Amino acid sequence: MLRYIARKAVGWFLMIAVATNLTYFLANAFLKPASNYTALRPPRTPAQINHSLSLYNLNPNKPILDRWWHWISGIVTHFDWGRSPTGGSVNDQVAYRIFVSGQLVLGSTILAIVIGVGLGVYTASRQYKAADRVWQGLSVLSFNTPSAVASLAVVLAAIALNQALGNTLLPVAGAQSPDVSGFWPVFASRATHAILPTISLTFISYAGYHLLQRSLLLDNINSDYVRTARAKGLTRKQAIYRHGLRTSIIPVATQVAFAMPALFTGAVITETVFAWHGMGEYFTKTISTNDVHGVVAVAAFGALMTAIGAILADLVVVALDPRIRVS
Amino acid sequence: MIEQRAVMTKPATQQPLLCVRDLKVAFPSESGRVDAVRGVSFDLHRGKTLGIVGESGSGKSVTSMAVMGLLPDYAAVTGSVTLGGENLLDLDDRRMSKVRGRRIGMIFQDPLSSLTPIFSIGSQIVEALQIHQDISSAAAWKRAVELLDLVGIPNPDRRAKGFPHEFSGGMRQRAVIAMAIANDPDLIIADEPTTALDVTVQAQILDVLRTAQRETGAAVIMITHDLGVVAGSADDVMVMYAGRAVERAGVDELFSRPRMPYTIGLMGAIPRLDDRDREALTPVQGTPPLLVDLPDACPFAARCPAVQDACREAEPDLLAIAGGGDVGGSEHSAACRRAAEIDDAAIGGEPIYPVPAERENRAAAVPREDRPKVLELSDVTKTFPLTKGGLLKRQVGTVFAVNGIDLDIREGETLGLVGESGCGKTTTLLEIMGLTPPERGAISVCGKDTAGLKREQDISAVRRDIQMVFQDPMGSLDPRMTVFDILAEPLRAVGERDRKTLSDKIADLMELVGLDPEHRDRFPAAFSGGQRQRIGIARALATKPRLLVLDEPVSALDVSVQAGVINLLNDLKAELGLSYLFVAHDLSVVCHISDRVAVMYLGRIVEIGDTDSVFDNPRHPYTKALLSAIPLPDPVAERTRERVLLKGDLPSPTDDRPGCRFVSRCPLHLTLSEPQQQKCRGVTPQLTGREDQDHLDACHFADLTASADN
């Protein structure tokens, strides 16, 4: 088993390395870091600009392979992912933003899975009854709600609530209040700030799990082995939970694992609406500011998340399904 | 061990264990209310076995599911099912779950899907035990291992930890039986327990069921479509048709003096190993009625050759027959107005089902040696690599799916190819139909060696001569093509373009296989299973082939329909001088239709020869075991018959070492002396002829028992 994981990890590591280096060359071909300086007043001469860029290993006049060597040796020796065209450290940005994104994504993912799978089981065992139809209707609605709409609706509702109460119960912007200090106050502030974006993210993502789990479980509820389980003396409900659910949850687990990378960098709109500075925002910002090193770091991070997701998916499937052999 | 209970000797004086009265089940459907079960009543005593026989849609499975309380919520169930004084239909799911598994155990049809794939076999039995008994996990596990041992699973200790996918079909069915008897139930319901299994495994499973019944003293409801299985295991038999019991009697009485024309039709429609002189089967015309808005008439009237006007006026009740024998303990009753007139399958000396006249086979007039060969296989071998690893696959072994087989088929002759699943029958067919040179050996079709077929035209010329009929009549016809298009396709493929000619040819083809040419614009869904198989045969005949390859052509059909298709095949052979390569697992069918038969085991032919010679005087121990495993639809013969029960399952054909492939399961091998045994293990037996001409076998010591047990 360990050998299998190690082999997989090596394979994925190579994949990440290839993807990252490829992105580096592509980003250098398309992005023009110099544009960050052309709008400055007083105008800089090209020589001045190039001089500034040289400081951050972005000088377009330097041969690309030289720049690449500088960049890659920085990563390998100091794990230094370079600097933005204006001198900011990519490492600092990413380290901070992963934390912010994680806070946003993990909570909503866990909630979405619990709610989605729970609803899937609940509605599948009541197929075509009123509860099934109502929940399914709601899920189809939420599934089709654009995240901007969901986020803004949540914001509007929260503002209305805050106004009705007369104080700011639920803050609608930022990841934490700027004026708190100390561990517990910061923790409390972060938690309250996370409530609204988590609700909006959960709302748009739970439906996928609900509909998937429902249809998978329905395939299994009428299967012969659930019938056998009932013939042994389990009630219908017990048979569904013990025999139907575990078999049908395997594909859902795989989907969750693979959804993680998309979640980390894909929550752009939610982050924007709630003014959170996470990886999603960084992703768009680095592209619009021609931040070559930032773009490459985001790509590398995405590849790493995919790798972790894939390995997790493998592990989950092996743990749940004895038919899968690892060799 | 399971607590032994005395089996009641005089059940008639006892209170019945299970008492079903006027059970009715209806389902809503798009076309209206489907009355799947329409008033079924029966009593069942401890230790007795009731066989319920009927074709698909007759309501036999629905009856058993109603007893188990496993029907979906939308089913409307009325009547009463009394088990030990309690009406099970009144219980809700929670209370019914105390009865299921504890007092009633159930065995299902498909062992491949009836075990949860992600739990070990042992833990599934432990669960069955712990639901109803308050025992520790360790004790339950020990008991589970004992149960597995009881149902004949070798190394139960180790195997209990195995998962369902590591078990063969027969082994899984044993595990299901172990689960069903885990709590020592009063009643075991077996719903087609052996239908999905090979005949040798079927014999083993029926044996295990008998053991289980003996150990628990339980009553058994045995649901099956196979009259042979019923004859061997039931005390009483109930024949169901269109949701009702149409005949009920003790097993001996029913088989010796059936009174209801449907029962008689069923018995006439099955090919029988023990009655080989019969030329043609008697099919029951038509199809069962749809169970929606049935009129008040005998539901069998439309198919009954002995129908009278009165039959269409009111549905007859199941009534006791005066003078009906009391042999098996229960009285003989039938739901037929004319039951009293019917005697020995005849009314007033006239058989109810006239035996259709068989056509003279012109080809058979010429001696076999003088007829041309339409197919010849010599030393044909097909292997598959066994690979390991994901990205970089490496070969770790070879599966010898077909391992050097020789056979030939002459004009106007049927060769039956039989063997258990996995023995290489289908691979052989695919090798033939591929029309490419085999890995080793040679295939020649109508005198042309496939190795010489290089050009497209050559291949299509040979392709015309050899056509195939498939097993599943639904899956092998495109549902979006009309019958006309289906039949026109092969004609167009061989260059027929003229619409008028096509139309005429298709009309001829449809008439040839007994379909109404008016129906040419219908889609396959509009036809019944038997009619679809006729379309499949017509399609194969479109190019006027000389050889038809038939892969299990009747195994998906009901018995009464199957007979019609078999008769059609026999007629076509006689009329068109066709040759057949007929692959089937049902030896009775093969025996009925074949002139010669080849028995395959693990990729090799172990016995080949004239059908009568092979079936009357089987020489290879495997052939003997196969033949003795077939249940005969004759209760007396079933009881007295000596069985050769094979142990275990088909091993996997991954080694090509010399030696007889059958050694691991051979009953004869065990009786041999050590040097003889060494010969079996070390020298591959070749097909050899003995005194009679057309009969070869591949066994070193076939002589030793040839006369002993026949």
Automatic annotation (TrEMBL), chain A:
Q: Which Pfam families match?
A: BPD_transp_1 (PF00528)
Identify the CDD domains for this entry. TM_PBP2 (cd06261)
Q: Which InterPro entries match?
A: MetI-like (IPR000515), MetI-like_sf (IPR035906)
GO CC, sorted alphabetically, is: plasma membrane
- The record's principal subcellular location, in a coarse class, is membrane
Gene Ontology biological process terms in this record: transmembrane transport
Q: Where are the transmembrane segments?
A: 12-31, 98-122, 134-161, 194-212, 256-276, 296-320
Q: Keywords for this entry?
A: Cell membrane, Membrane, Transmembrane, Transmembrane helix, Transport
| Segments forming domain ABC transmembrane type-1 | 98-317
Where is this gene product found?
A: Cell membrane
Membrane topology summary: Multi-pass membrane protein
Identify the domain of life. Bacteria
Which PANTHER family does the protein's record reference?
Answer: INNER MEMBRANE ABC TRANSPORTER, OLIGOPEPTIDE TRANSPORT SYSTEM PERMEASE PROTEIN APPB
Q: Which family does it belong to?
A: Belongs to the binding-protein-dependent transport system permease family.
The name of this protein is ABC transporter permease
Specify the species.
Streptomyces montanisoli
From TrEMBL, chain B:
Query: Mind listing the UniProt keywords for this protein, alphabetically?
Result: ATP-binding, Nucleotide-binding, Transport
The answer, when asked if Nucleotide-binding is one of the entry's keywords, is yes
Q: Where is the ABC transporter domain?
A: 20-267, 375-627
Instruction: Give the GO molecular function terms.
Output: ATP binding; ATP hydrolysis activity
Among PROSITE patterns, the record links this protein to: ABC_TRANSPORTER_1, ABC_TRANSPORTER_2
Could you provide one GO biological process annotation from this protein's UniProt record? transmembrane transport
SMART domains, per the entry: AAA
Q: Does the keyword Nucleotide-binding apply?
A: yes
What family is this protein classified in?
Belongs to the ABC transporter superfamily.
Q: What is this protein called?
A: ABC transporter ATP-binding protein
Instruction: Give the species this sequence originates from.
Output: Streptomyces montanisoli
Q: Top-down, what is the taxonomic lineage of the species of origin?
A: Bacteria, Bacillati, Actinomycetota, Actinomycetes, Kitasatosporales
